[in-house]
Fold:
Amino acid sequence: MSGWLAIIGLGPGSSAQITPEVTQLLSEATDIVGYESYVHRITSRNPAVRHLSGNRVELERAYQALNLATDGKNVALVTSGDPGIFAMAAAVFEAVDAGPKTWRSLDIRVLPGITALLAASARTGAPLGNDFCAINLSDNLKPWALIEKRLRLAIDGDFVIACYNPRSNARPNGFAKVLKLLQRETDRKRTLIFARAVSTKHEHIQVIPLEDCRPDMADMQTLIIIGNSMTRIIETTGQPWVYTPRSVDPEKSQ
Structure:
């Protein structure tokens, strides 16, 4: 008899931001599959078998989880943030789409989690208060030319832009290209938010005008929000609040 596969999001880092639904499923799982740093975040005393793997083997993890569920295991496949946003849910359904027909009858569930763009927005106010988009800056699975095209279109549409995976040791130059593009095509005073490791003890948030931004301000744990032409800052005695107004002046939208 087949088990089930729950693809779950552990949120941005704090255990307080894991949903009750996820906590319940973790307590029922017989097997937990995931990238080792995410699996280590689980403090549940459930004696589930833990299957740890390295980074950048998403499809292999998906196949492992599907095979375990086919063998009758109740599997929690864990990821950070939300599993449907640049994460494991897409990898699982890619595997199901290309895999044996038996996988299509499995009990597969996707449990949402708080993703980094929501956590970063909440920490800084309401920068996502108007239309926004999310772009993954990693070119591991798509060409840089496509990333740049999407950035240009988002800038042209005056979207607030949330950027995932801006910079890593293997990709040190991509975010520098993004900054140069922004400096050419937008106001240099435009507001950027660098939100690193939000909700953890390593949290660090910077609200900076574009002209003062440097590539080394970002790493793989950083979510960057690029404000649009309307994004505003409210100065306070502490960290400033950032928000994007809900309404748009028709004359300025032409």
About this structure: Residues 92 and 98 are 10 Å apart (CA to CA). Helices lie at 20-28, 36-39, 58-70, 88-98, 116-124, 144-156, 174-185. The longest helix spans residues 58-70.
